[in-house]
Amino acid sequence: MLRKITFIVLLFWSSSSMSNTFSEVFGSEGAAGIENPKTRSLSYTLQYATLAGSIGYVIRKLHDTGFLEPLGFTPSINEKLSPLAYKKSYILDKHSANIINVNQKVEEINYYNNLKKKLINKKYSSKAIELRNNKNFSNSIINTNNRNYILNRYYEE
Fold it and tell me: What's this model's pTM, rounded to 2 decimal places?
């Protein structure tokens, strides 16, 4: 068994190697084809296309992650996530300001209406009773302050 292995190793060891990279990968057609200028230019074209594609892919990934943002290349996903931070020029005219103000008031009214509905549904809960008592105390203090203010005005005259 050892003699067979030794014979095989010596057989391959003693043979001279006549292959190069092209014949290993493409066979003899590849080795002969590299001599042809048309095949060589096609090879260069494929290499440049591969290089350009790789560089484009890397640059696209850098752009999408926001790496190029200091250079002014902001990804559109960031602008969608945070429009206030990435808005270009936002001029607020009188009409837009009125719309924003009305929308804020509507949201506030809706919030208080929803709060009233919740309190009506839980009229006798401890939280509702506490809120009513606090409101009564607040109203009492406000009324007392108003009476004192009116009395002081009449006494000064």
Answer: 0.34
